[in-house]
Amino acid sequence: MTVMPPARHRPAAKRPMWIIVLLCLVCVVLIGAYVYPPRHYSQCYLSASSVCTPFKDWLPSIGRRERTDDEVISAAVIRDILGMPMSTSKSPKIAFMFLTPGSLPFEKLWEKFLQGHEGRYSIYVHASRQKPVHSSSLFVGRDIHSDAVVWGKISMIDAEKRLLANALEDADNQFFVLLSDSCVPLHSFDYVFNYLMGTNISFIDCFQDPGPHGNGRYSLEMLPEIEERDFRKGAQWFAITRRHALLILADNLYYKKFKLYCKPADGRNCIADEHYLPTLFNMVDPGGIANWSVTHVDWSEGKWHPRSYAAADVSYDLLKNITAVDETIHVTSDDKKVVTQKPCLWNGSKSPCYLFARKFYPETLDSLLKIFTSYTSV
């Protein structure tokens, strides 16, 4: 009789756990990329464009539409502008761009501010309602073609683009400052020049406001290019580098969205000039802006319009108090009224925030001229 050998008990086969773990990690990465795909140009710069762009295109699209030729061109030009080195000039100038309904009541004050600094500045005036009458020879011949502008509407952005287009024709213009007819200078020209030319960031006000004056004005029709979480609010008065001035003119994708669909859920018109630039730069170059405007305005009264200064308000103490401010304050427009206070950092150091101020009534001109030298002295 043949004796059968006892049955051998084989140990259970080891599962290739490392393969399972690797597959799980790959799935998690793909799901994450699907849910949170890169949405900012600056994020794509972290990796080579040959990796970032095809990967995004491979992902399933949600609500994606085919972009127009103008939009494709706009995106490509913006990408190239952000990637190019900052331009330089042997004779750099500041372009002071005035957006006004008509005549500028403070031309004599600006003349005093600019006196003796020829060749270091340019002036451009966009008067949209009536031809301005100039009281200073510095402003004569500085008017540009203008169309009707309705405050708060997209025509404000059109006027800003028109000013930038004219100012960019001068290759020496390196910084571009948008000012209103009620703006006045707070410092000497040398101080302003060194403040702006000494940094490579743009001063664009930008913050997130969940209230009715912020995201409450967001429209679902701005999808898919602009999402609600990208929507921002800020002041329209800016001081920007030449690179960012070019970028604004090149943008057609986001500008078109604002032009067509900038309207809130409650049907009131969106205040385009308070949202377009903050939203644009929050999406394409958030690290390139300071998140505050160098033009001071007082919203402490909590009204629809900021405080306006009459002749009786103007004093040395008022101007020096404004020039001493070194922190920005943003307050949300919802019921919570959340206050965000941050230091103004100029090249990493805490610094005074403001170079200009508004809103001053024309009647304040004589008082401002009398104390100009004292309040602008360092």
From TrEMBL:
Major site of localization recorded for this protein: membrane
Intracellular or extracellular location(s): Membrane
Tagged with keyword Mitochondrion: no
GO molecular function list: glycosyltransferase activity
Membrane topology designation: Single-pass type II membrane protein
Entries under InterPro entries matching the protein: BC10-like, Glyco_trans_14
Presence of keyword Glycosyltransferase: yes
Protein name from the UniProt record: Glycosyltransferase
Natural source organism: Hordeum vulgare subsp. vulgare (Domesticated barley)
Gene: LOC123413528
